[in-house]
Amino acid sequence: MELLPIYAKFLTFLPESLAKEETFLNELTACTRSLIIKKGDYLIRPGMMCQDAYFIYKGLLVNQYVNENGNECVTGFSSEDMYPFVTTIGYLTKAPSEFEVKALEDGELLCLSRKDIERLSLSYPAFATGYQNVMLMIIYKFYSMFAIRQTSTAEEFLRYLYLRHPWIVHRVPDKYIAQYMGVSNSWYCKLKKNILY
Q1: What is the pTM of this model?
Q2: Mean pLDDT of all residues in the chain?
Q3: Does residue 194 have a pLDDT over 90?
Q4: CA-CA distance, 88 to 99, in Å (whole number)?
Q5: Out of 47, 50, 189, 196, which residue is the most buried by the measure of CB atoms under 10 Å away?
Q6: Is residue 143 packed enough to be buried (19+ CB in 10 Å), middle (13-18) or exposed (0-12)?
Q7: What distance lies between CA 171 and its chain's CA centroid?
Q8: 185-196 and 174-181 helices cross at what angle (nearest 10)?
Q9: What is the DSSP string of 105-134?
Q10: 111: left (phi over 0), alpha (psi -120 to 50) or beta
Q11: Residues facing residue 49 across a β-bridge
């Protein structure tokens, strides 16, 4: 079966046996849809019920927490190169989202509904294992970055980003990185100059 590139990339995160199973591939392509998102568009807004999970084929997204007063806090970034799976905690809790996900670049995503993920997980144990691994990757991303941020000075954390996650500092606008680090834009620019010069 000839697969579109978006599916071929998605399958690299699942056990290899599934990529060769034509019945699974037919079901997967039948229950998923490709979604084009433009820079500045919201994938998820606060108050939405998040019933879907997304795989980034190309693009860059920012995750933000929004409190009842409308104040925002950046909680992470996802791109096709790193952390390509996106959803909010509301997906797991089945509660309205307190987070928003916005595109920082034009992108293309693969959308899978919770219902179809559960159905595929029951029918294909290898898919269930792959899906659990993806969920663990999302949780690991959140907690490890949070821990490093909390135990580092702002300059140490920025050096860490340059060393371990250069895609963030090269693709994400400065104002979002500053918010993520909990510093002002002007302080972020000073830190960046210290590191680069």
Answers
A1: 0.89
A2: 90
A3: no
A4: 7
A5: 50
A6: exposed
A7: 15
A8: 100
A9: S-EEEEEEEHHHHHHHHHH-HHHHHHHHHH
A10: beta
A11: 96
